[in-house]
Design a protein that fits this description.
Elements lengths: L16 E4 L17 H12 L3 E5 L4 H10 L11 E4 L3 E6 L2 E4 L1 H18 L3 H10 L4 E6 L5 E5 L2 H18 L4 E6 L2 E6 L5 H11 L7 E5 L5 H4 L6 E4 L5 H9 L3 E2 L5 H13 L12
Parallel strand pairs: 1-2, 1-10, 2-3, 10-11, 11-12
Antiparallel strand pairs: 3-4, 4-5, 6-7, 7-9, 8-9
Length: about 290
């Protein structure tokens, strides 16, 4: 057990799993400085050691997240995180510092995602021409074989317009299983059935034998929508710096808006859930 003393033992946590987006949710990038409040990591570590699950749900590669946390002084999986979702599609479990891909789930998903993206190839030039023909600025685009087709637009307004154009084009061509979301100015097309944060977090909870109402999901941008808006049955949360559209969806789903940027906002949400008796207060020093 960590040296921080567990107390308030009479409270039984109703929430057994916490899934958090990485950039601008767990990790603060303000002024180019990477920051996570150390109290949050200590609390999450105690939460894990009490038999619960706390992890990251991100579109990033796993190695990027590991590298950032270790540069900030946190040993990956010792004990946080004890699970994570990467590329919005794949689940890994971390036990006693040993990182294991959940291959019984990941292997077929990997093939399904790859085949889906391969089939998008013939349409990329068409979509590029349609966006530029509408006067939109494409800063860059990438086709990731394990993840998505991703386009970075000039600003948020253009990103929203791009989603409208692409959605209409996809519908007209009768393409199936395409889901479009936005993360800041990044417009992303992913496989709808097996990718997306809400879908995969649901599979992770199922793997651990948990019901959706035992899961707290927290994000900041529209690519987090499926896991925080309440439709999957999770308890939803959005940090204070989150997208206004996401905040509205979380409020509509009876979720929580945390005051503060990134990890400070997560701490605020946890404090409120502790006050409501849905989580334990694990460390003597107040969050």
């Amino acid at each position: 057990m960590m040296k921080e003393q567990i107390y308030n033992q009479t409270v039984s946590s109703q929430i057994r799993m916490i899934g958090m987006d990485f950039d601008w949710t767990l990790l603060d990038h303000t002024n180019g400085r990477l920051y996570i409040n150390d109290k949050l990591i200590k609390w999450l570590s105690c939460y894990i050691e009490d038999g619960n699950y706390a992890g990251i749900v991100s579109g990033r590669n796993a190695w990027e997240m590991k590298d950032i946390l270790e540069r900030l002084g946190y040993s990956w999986g010792k004990p946080f995180p004890n699970f994570y979702i990467h590329r919005e599609s794949y689940i890994n479990i971390v036990e006693d510092g040993v990182d294991r891909s959940l291959e019984e789930y990941n292997a077929p998903i990997r093939k399904q995602v790859s085949d889906f993206l391969l089939n998008l190839g013939p349409y990329l030039a068409k979509w590029k021409n349609e966006l530029e023909g509408a006067g939109l600025t494409i800063r860059k685009w990438n086709l990731y074989g394990d993840f998505s087709f991703e386009i970075q637009m000039g600003n948020l307004e253009q990103s929203n317009h791009a989603i409208e154009i692409l959605s209409q084009s996809i519908q007209q061509m009768g393409l199936k299983n395409c889901y479009i979301h936005r993360n800041g100015t990044l417009v992303t097309i992913i496989e709808a059935n097996c990718s997306g944060k809400g879908n995969v977090l649901s599979k992770a909870a199922e793997h651990f034998g948990l019901n959706p109402n035992q899961v707290l999901a927290i994000g900041d941008s529209l690519n987090d929508m499926t896991m925080v808006d309440g439709r999957m049955g999770f308890i939803g949360g959005c940090v204070g710096n989150g997208d206004e559209l996401l905040k509205k969806a979380v409020i509509k789903g009876n979720g929580y808006i945390g005051n503060g940027v990134a990890s400070e906002g997560i701490i605020d949400i946890i404090k409120r859930l502790i006050a409501e008796g849905k989580l334990k207060n694990y460390i003597e020093a107040p969050l």
